[in-house]
Sequence to fold (284 residues):
Amino acid sequence: MSALPPAIAPAFQYASDCYITQSIQMGMEGLHGIGMTWPTAFISAAILLRIGTAPLHIYAEKLFAQRLHAQNFLTQGILKKVSERYRVQLGPSADGSKLEVKSSDPKIAKATEDALHEVPSMLSEHGLQAARIQNLKMSTVPIWIFSSFALRNVINSDFHPSVAGALWIPDMLAPDPYFVLPVAVGVFGFLNLYSQRKIYPGVVKMTWKQKSYDAVLAFFTMFAVSIMSQLPACIPMYWLIVSMSGMAQAQLLRHPKIKSIFGIKKLPTDSRTPIRDLFKMRTV
Fold:
């Protein structure tokens, strides 16, 4: 901690010593204590944490599907009432992506817009706010941060555990000599982002804010890759398992059979071949 800037040293100290970090560290040491090698213990800890945090993501996906169904239902009902009141035709937009009132009258357009502005408040009344759904997914982020500090505590402990490597990495306490693991972490980070933007083209609207968010995320992903290339190889290995398991979880929750098990409503973006869809996109 002495090498850290004074402004952030207390935060790092807290993250290293808090109960969550200590609990995860004890779990990693316990896995090693039952006979697992340290790399296997780290990998197992990442998978167990992914399973443990899965209910939050499943619940978020359930609310997300409910929100889309409710939003479509309310929007269709409002547009139908506007159409009947002003006696104008209701039909699909030019690109066929949504319903719209077929009128160029500014008065009707204003009435339609005002009516549709009530949809978010209606969704909020039923606990389907977009912010709530996003916060449910983001609530697991601290767990992963604390788990990284738990891993750091293990490899920096007084007894200096021997972490034998394999293949091109002879020692997991030394940086990856060929940068394979750090680069793989970055690739899966971009792949996760790519899947969210491409598999759900009709759901995620690419506003300037979203593009700015993607740019910032890309920058921090590249920054993280450069940092991980200088850290012990077991750290990027751990984050690679975290990224891979997160990717697998997201794709599994798009499969109709998996969704039916957890009672998640169907969406047009569901797929029986979610992995293939990463490389062969279909139009939604």
